Amino acid sequence: MTTVTATSSTAPLSRADLAAKPVLSPGKLVWLRFRRHKMAIVGIVILLVILLYITVGSIFMPESYANFNNTKIKLQPPSLDHPFGTDSVGRDLMARTISGGQISLVIGVSAMLVALVLGTLVGAIAGYYGGIIDSILMRFTEAVFNIPQLFLLIVVGKFFAMDINAIELFGRTFSGSVLVIILIIGLTSWTYLARIVRAQFLSLKERDYIYAARAIGTSNGPIIFRHILPNSLAPIIVAATLGVASAILAEAYVSFLGLGVQAPTASWGNLLVSSYDRLQTAPWLWIFPGLLITLTVLAINFVGDGLRDALDPRTQI
Fold it and tell me: Is the pLDDT of residue 181 over 80?
């Protein structure tokens, strides 16, 4: 008579095995997945260096120094006194990149926050309520999606940005064009995020725990913001991260055309304006601002890719 024994692959784990296996929290799991993404770690390091550069650097090279011009030293190549050289009116280019980096990142983060709030609200309401509300909001989303962002930035910057007075904030002078750029980029960049959030809500609202919450009398507000939205954060965080990079590039485009951030405020985009006719005679004018834009955008994209993998529960550790 043949005796059938259970193999080790099908035998249940003993209490000792379960105790020996560490229980990882969701945050620890995310960190372990993120740490495996080497380029994301490189992106974090690059971003930290750039943030230190524009924050600590402003202590030694404040905005007043960045805007100080001395025509006797105009178009000087990089040297010990001026590591990035000087521009066409004798301003220190390193100081200008420090001051301009603050503006570019403020525009990127602020525009992303505007898009984040609008996209999350529209997507959540459309996905949760569905029906006629979903149809109206999605048709509105499609209409906004078809608005050409760069064309709108150029038109608004041409006719309205010049009429807005400069703003004093945190000891910095922001031209009125900064506010215009933030609003235009933010108000035209939320449509992609709204579709992502809507898809998440359409899926999650059919889960058993949502039916249970409704059965015990939980109102719509707590269900949306306490039960469904926290479980939709992964794609929202990734989309928001990549949105910062897109906003920085959009600002650079329109500033390069001379219709973005206006003097005396510096940005990485408008620093390139004075370089397009001196590409060979004064290459430092475009190399350093261009390099900072490239490194920042690449680093943010690397971090966004890493977050996408880390927040995906299907990714193996």
Answer: yes
